[in-house]
Amino acid sequence: MKLYSSPTSPFVRKCRIVALEHGVPLSLVRTNILGNDAAQPNPLLMIPSLEMDDGMLIADSRVICHVLSGGGPRSLQDRVLEAVADGICDRAVARMFADRSGNADPDMQARHVRAINGTLDHLEAQTRGGFGIGDAALVCALTYLDMRHADLDWRAARPQLATWLAEISERPSVAQTEYAP
Ligand SMILES: N[C@@H](CCC(=O)N[C@@H](CS)C(=O)NCC(=O)O)C(=O)O
């Protein structure tokens, strides 16, 4: 199976972690998301997308992770965590693109930061165990903040999340998929 990808996308990294956790080999096809649209198989012009061996194209990291993990039943808690962590990534990616555009709306940028911080506070108050797709998504969100939004200094007021990330970073699927900016 081919995963259309970039080495700095949190959604791609989540899929790669889930594939490694489930022993699914993936061939990565590097895709320039802001480059030539003709090279992008996903009509939504987004990564990740997964090309199955029979040619079927699957868009969206949540659906891709469902497929890569075998499509079995999952706890509601794990699904909620994935959605919340992906939401942080949506905000963080939007803030990054707006910063790069040079004409970011300050009110919108502040709203992204409020949303990211509020969601991290909510997650800090929770306990977690095991390692599901939601946890993979959270790893990708926290490390994406480190890579693109170090100014937010998310660890400062969130020692539980910081300790959790340090421990989980030892996991082979996490260690082998570090962002490569
Ligand atoms: N909901 C999507 C979000 C994917 C996403 O935002 N991908 C970004 C890269 S991190 C992208 O392809 N952006 C290109 C664009 O917005 O044109 C998923 O989970 O796969």
Number of helices: 7
* Rg: 16 Å
Mean pLDDT: 96
CATH topology of the largest domain, what is it called?
Glutathione S-transferase Yfyf (Class Pi), Chain A, domain 2
SSE succession: EHEEEHHHHHH
- Sheet with most strands: 4 strands, mixed
Beta-strand fraction estimate: 5-15%
pLDDT below 50 for ≥5 consecutive residues: which ranges?
Answer: none
Class by alpha and beta content: alpha+beta
End-to-end distance, in Å?
Answer: 24 Å
Shape, please? globular
State the CATH class of the largest domain: Mainly Alpha
What would you say the CATH architecture of the largest domain is? Up-down Bundle
From the structure provided, what is the oligomeric state, counting identical versus distinct chains? Answer: single chain
Widest β-sheet, arrangement of strands: 2-1-3-4
